[in-house]
């Protein structure tokens, strides 16, 4: 990989170099994909083949793993777990898209006292470790009677606590031409009209990125759910997988990984559908100060 | 704390042009737009920070009122709790292994991808996918299984004559398997590197090539300086994230941080103290120590960055 030419002309000159490059990239990719292939293969393996066999492919496909997984964990069906996960993820998406775009518009396009310091503070909260505020947040939600409900996962999103997305949307809005709002103002639009009718529609790519990332990160989140949810009925798919963590019996391997496939499937589908937004959203987050 | 101690990556507020607007009205509108964020920042960030600072000086178990004990939590942490230091060392080991290797791999693949013409989009997405999947419990469980005794990684290595015998059961190797999971997710910094590479003007390379500069020379004198802001951004972000690793350590050790506390990362111990042992005061002290540590590390990074991070629009010094 170190021999990869950096400049385009060099690459054009040496077709063999290019082939070597592709071979290296594909080799790295195959190694990287192995854990995913293993996960999928294991979800179809009969119990006695899970560990003993070195082969990736099962001797026969054990669909029973999936029907066991469908029954769920702790008497809670997969359908229920899936629904719980969806509820939290969709609530979080709605909250982040609304609250982060509002805050971003103020930071990117409006003039107000204290904007500089507040913006700096907002950026700094991106770096704030979650654990520094975790325990008091827990106490607050406990006082409000919201422990073992989904509110601790959803409510903060409606208050723009994910500064990363505010920053992402600010970056995007700053790229929009200022003449748009000037034209809107001449036509008699106040800041609210020009936000809803002019800026917000144009910000759609950043909003989609925010929505998809929020969905995936909330779906994957383990720590918050571990702390706030304790009733199996309320568990999410991620949390239900936890009960497999404690049980180390290998006979549960097939169903456990079948369940894991259920938990990963929405992310994979989201990724396949929106990969362009995801990859570009991530790329733009690190650029253009 | 970090707010004042460090200079954020983008401290300069965005420019606004809106001149001569009815000032009062615009100000009011801005605060309306900001109100959810202001409420969140006050009630869910600032207030909890203050409360956790207060709790760190108390003995608090969630049921009885907090009892002020001064610096007792901190002295206990630093002088009487070997598990605390164990968790600090474990976390530092993990950060020092995972972050540089992850960024190195990300940079190498990004540079390789830069010169790829066909299939670039495919590669970009394929390398990025683990960054999204890897944070999940599902993949952490896969890791536990393939690095277990008799798991496929173990089998592969003993097939090659290297007999480790189940990474996750061996102190010293277990944390390495967690680090490998993080390195595996190099796609996110890679995508950022790649976008940075594409912003480097091609004329620079052309001029260097005319001057007869070797590939390595071009890499050292053009790519690295031009990419340094992005490198810095990735370093800060990945470091802060790495200090807070939780899920894979939880999964690999079934929530216990074993074997022999070798995967007891900082946040896992914090969770254990606060939510399993109900020592909320102690856990708060740990949280503040983490906050300060991250603040110090970030501040040091920002301070040293002046020596090696080059901003093209500043001036030309350092562009050698």
From TrEMBL, chain A:
GO biological process entries: transmembrane transport
InterPro entries given in the database record: MetI-like (IPR000515), MetI-like_sf (IPR035906)
Database matches in CDD domains: TM_PBP2
Residues that span the membrane, as ranges: 19-41, 81-107, 119-141, 153-173, 194-219, 252-274
Domain ABC transmembrane type-1: 82-274
UniProt entry keywords in alphabetical sequence: Cell membrane, Membrane, Transmembrane, Transmembrane helix, Transport
Keyword Membrane carried by entry: yes
CC per GO annotation: plasma membrane
Membrane topology: Multi-pass membrane protein
Gene3D superfamilies hit by this protein: MetI-like
Compartment(s) where it occurs, according to its Swiss-Prot or TrEMBL record: Cell membrane
Predominant location category: membrane
Assigned protein family: Belongs to the binding-protein-dependent transport system permease family.
Protein name, UniProt field: Sugar ABC transporter permease
Lineage, broadest ranks: Bacteria, Bacillati, Actinomycetota, Actinomycetes, Kitasatosporales
Automatic annotation (TrEMBL), chain B:
GO BP, sorted A to Z: transmembrane transport
Places the protein is found: Cell membrane
Residue intervals passing through the bilayer: 29-57, 92-113, 125-146, 173-197, 226-246, 280-302
Main location: membrane
The protein's name in its UniProt record: ABC transporter permease
Keywords: Cell membrane, Membrane, Transmembrane, Transmembrane helix, Transport
Transmembrane as UniProt keyword: yes
Pfam families xref list: BPD_transp_1
InterPro entries: ABC_transporter_permease, MetI-like, MetI-like_sf
Region (Disordered): 1-23
Residue intervals of the ABC transmembrane type-1 domain: 88-303
Coiled-coil ranges per UniProt: none
Domain of life: Bacteria
Family membership: Belongs to the binding-protein-dependent transport system permease family.
Any single Gene Ontology cellular-component annotation: plasma membrane
Topology with respect to the bilayer: Multi-pass membrane protein
Biased composition range(s): Low complexity: 1-16
């Amino acid at each position: 990989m170190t021999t990869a030419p950096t400049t385009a002309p060099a690459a054009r000159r040496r077709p063999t170099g290019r082939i070597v490059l592709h071979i290296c990239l594909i080799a790295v990719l195959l190694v990287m994909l192995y854990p995913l292939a293993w996960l999928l293969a294991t979800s179809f393996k009969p119990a006695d083949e899970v560990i003993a066999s070195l082969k990736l492919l099962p001797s026969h496909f054990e669909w029973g793993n999936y029907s066991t997984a469908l029954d769920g964990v702790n008497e809670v069906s997969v359908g229920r777990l899936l629904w719980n996960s969806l509820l939290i993820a969709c609530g979080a998406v709605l909250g982040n898209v609304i609250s982060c775009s509002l805050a971003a518009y103020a930071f990117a396009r409006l003039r107000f006292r204290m904007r500089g310091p507040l913006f700096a503070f907002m950026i700094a909260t991106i770096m704030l470790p979650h654990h520094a505020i975790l325990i008091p947040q827990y106490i607050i939600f406990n006082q409000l009677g919201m422990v073992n409900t989904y509110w601790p996962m959803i409510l903060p999103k409606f208050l723009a606590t994910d500064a990363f997305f505010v920053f992402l949307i600010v970056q995007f809005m700053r790229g929009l031409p200022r003449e748009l709002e000037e034209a809107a103002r001449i036509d008699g639009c106040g800041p609210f009209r020009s936000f809803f009718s002019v800026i917000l529609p144009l910000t759609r790519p950043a909003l989609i990125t925010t929505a998809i990332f929020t969905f995936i990160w909330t779906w994957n989140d383990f720590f918050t759910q571990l702390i706030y949810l304790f009733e199996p009925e309320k568990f999410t798919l991620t949390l239900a997988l936890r009960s497999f963590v404690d049980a180390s019996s290998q006979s549960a391997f097939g169903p456990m990984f079948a369940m894991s496939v259920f938990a990963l499937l929405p992310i994979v589908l989201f990724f396949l559908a929106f990969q362009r937004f995801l990859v570009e959203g991530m790329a733009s987050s690190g650029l253009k100060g | 704390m970090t707010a004042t101690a460090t200079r954020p990556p983008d401290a300069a507020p965005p420019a606004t042009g809106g001149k001569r607007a009815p000032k009062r009205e615009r100000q009011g509108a801005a605060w309306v737009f900001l109100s959810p964020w202001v409420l969140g920042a006050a009630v869910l960030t600032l207030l909890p920070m203050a409360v956790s600072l207060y709790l760190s000086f108390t003995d608090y178990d969630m049921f009885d009122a907090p009892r002020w004990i001064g610096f007792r939590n901190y002295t206990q942490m630093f002088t009487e709790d070997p598990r605390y230091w164990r968790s600090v060392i474990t976390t530092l080991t993990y950060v020092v292994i995972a972050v540089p290797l992850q960024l190195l791999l990300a940079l190498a693949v990004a540079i390789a991808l830069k010169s790829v013409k066909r299939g670039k989009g495919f590669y970009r997405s394929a390398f990025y996918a683990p960054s999204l999947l890897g944070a999940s419990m599902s993949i952490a469980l896969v890791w536990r299984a393939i690095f277990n005794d008799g798991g496929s990684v173990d089998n592969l290595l003993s097939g090659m004559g290297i007999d480790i015998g189940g990474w996750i059961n061996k102190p010293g190797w277990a944390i390495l398997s967690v680090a490998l999971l993080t390195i595996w997710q190099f796609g996110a910094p890679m995508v950022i590197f790649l976008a940075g590479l594409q912003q480097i003007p091609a004329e620079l390379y052309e001029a260097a090539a005319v001057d007869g500069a070797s590939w390595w020379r071009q890499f050292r004198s053009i790519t690295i300086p031009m990419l340094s802001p992005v490198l810095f951004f990735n370093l800060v972000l990945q470091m802060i994230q790495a200090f807070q690793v939780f899920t894979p350590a939880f999964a690999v050790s079934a929530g216990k941080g074993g074997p022999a506390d070798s995967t007891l990362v900082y946040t896992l111990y914090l969770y254990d103290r606060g939510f399993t042992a109900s020592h909320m005061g102690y856990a708060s002290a740990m949280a503040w120590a983490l906050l300060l540590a991250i603040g110090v590390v970030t501040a040091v990074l920002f301070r040293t960055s002046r020596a090696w991070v080059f901003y093209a629009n500043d001036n030309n010094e350092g562009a050698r």
